[in-house]
TrEMBL record:
GO cellular component: plasma membrane; receptor complex
Lineage: Eukaryota, Metazoa, Cnidaria, Anthozoa, Octocorallia
Membrane topology: Single-pass membrane protein
Protein name from the UniProt record: Activin receptor type-1
Top-level division of the source organism's lineage: Eukaryota
Keyword Transferase: yes
Chief localization: membrane
Amino acid sequence: MVPHDPSFEIMKEVVCVQQKRPTFPNEWSNNKLLQGMMVIIKECWSQNAAARLTSLRVDKKLTKLLTDCKSPVVVSEVEQDIMDLLKPS
């Protein structure tokens, strides 16, 4: 989509004019935690600034996602790393 180290002008064209966003790996669709992260990220990418999540709303959604994803089921190392990052400090 863009070169390794894109200029401001290239990013402005791709993001603002063409309204393109990065894609997510297919594996994310098979994982409840990563699906939730994907939804939150996409909500932060709205073209309309007023429609984007506030930092408080992101915090609340991440906290809820972490709570919802906690279960006795064994999680992968990557999932555990993500859950550790989302823990309130």
